[in-house]
Amino acid sequence: MIRGLYTGASAMLVYARRQDLLANDLANAQTPGYRTEDAPIRAFPELFIHEELGATRSPRGMAGTGAYLDRSYLRWEPAPIRYTGRELDLAIEGDGFFAVQTPAGVRLTRAGNFVIDAQGRLATPDGYLVLGPEGPVQAGTAQGAALAVTEQGEVLDATTGALLGRIGLVDVPDRQGLVREGSNLFRPTAESGPVVAAAGTIRQGMLEGSATSVVETMVQMIAGLRAYQAAQQAVRAEDEMTGSLIAQIGRVS
Fold first, then answer.
1. For position 1, what pLDDT does the model report?
2. What is the C-alpha to C-alpha distance for residues 169 and 185, in angstroms, rounded to an integer?
3. Which residues form the Flagellar basal body rod protein N-terminal domain (predicted)?
4. DSSP label of 31
5. pLDDT in tens, 38-82
6. What's the rounded Cα separation, in Å, for the pair 203 and 153?
7. Radius of gyration of the chain (CA)
8. How far apart, in whole angstroms, are the C-alpha atoms of residue 124 and residue 214?
9. What whole-number distance in Å separates Cα of residue 130 and Cα of residue 150?
10. What stretch of H or E contains 14?
11. H or E segment at 232?
12. Tens digit of pLDDT for each residue in 148-158?
């Protein structure tokens, strides 16, 4: 294989894949509790180039052999928390996740834009029940009275002060072992370690936003597009040069 073509093509693949990651982040710029994903660009080992003139070998430097996109990882920097005033909006300050019950098992999320289902239980907009130490969290109040949620996750009838349920925050030893799934959920794995209790606090009437910075993401997309175009031009130049050499060889023969 012509090394120049391979190097340019590998760069095009790297930046195309990176654009996909950035586009996904940008599409979730308004998703509560969303975490961005990144992947470092790695270079394949370089080759030492030398020139042979008879018995003499003269060094000519190093030559790159292409690049690849390493395994992607989730970025866990804190996302901004904003006031909404909605009593079922809950934000986690500090470490931790909400645990929710899905048909596929327990999943974790930082998105706290909850609702109350027909049975008076706290749930996600997709209908997944929010879990606490005692199971699904009851949050239905008599005659639609206001709801109060303490920093420790106790769900109270704001009128009578009666305890309705308790939300439990959880975490895992290694968050990079979590697997992202749809609906802004994360699946614990053997790599992430077992689910344990977390020490974060809950803020009622507030919502954690997306960790995506629209401006930063747009800047990265523009830079990635230019890098892709440069690699594309390099491939085209290599192709034209190869074609020219083949034509010259044909005329000589």
1. 55
2. 15
3. 5-35
4. S
5. 888 888 877 777 777 777 778 777 777 788 888 888 999 889 999
6. 9
7. 27
8. 26
9. 16
10. helix 3-27
11. helix 214-252
12. 999 999 999 88
Name the phi and psi angles at 23, rounded to 5. -65, -40
Q: Closest Cα to residue 138, out of 128, 129, 146, 125?
A: 129
Q: Are 67 and 14 in contact (CB under 8 A)?
A: yes
SS3 138: strand
Handedness of CA 194, 196, 200, 206 (dihedral sign): positive
- At 128, the amino acid letter reads Y
pLDDT score for 142? 61
Helix (H) or strand (E) holding 18: helix 3-27
pTM higher than 0.85 for the full model? no
Region at 87 (left for phi over 0; alpha for psi -120 to 50; beta for the rest): alpha
Tokens of 128: 């997944």
Q: State the amino acid at position 241 in one-letter form.
A: M
Residues near 67 by beta carbon (within 8 Å), at least 6 away in sequence: 7, 10, 11, 14, 41, 42, 43, 44
Under DSSP, the state recorded for 79 is P
Write the DSSP assignment of 144-207 as a string of letters.
G--EEE-TT-EEEETTT--EEEE--EEE-S-GGG-EEETTTEEE--TTT---EE---EEEETEE
Residue 15 φ/ψ, nearest 5 degrees: -75, -30
Q: Give me the long-range contacts of 222-226 (CB less than 8 A, separation at least 24).
A: 224/15, 224/18, 224/19, 224/22, 225/15, 225/19
Minimal CA–CA distance to 115: which of 124, 107, 102? 124
Burial profile 75-109: b = 16 or more Cβ within 10 angstroms, e = fewer = eeeebeeeebeeebbbbbeeebbbbbbbeeeebbb
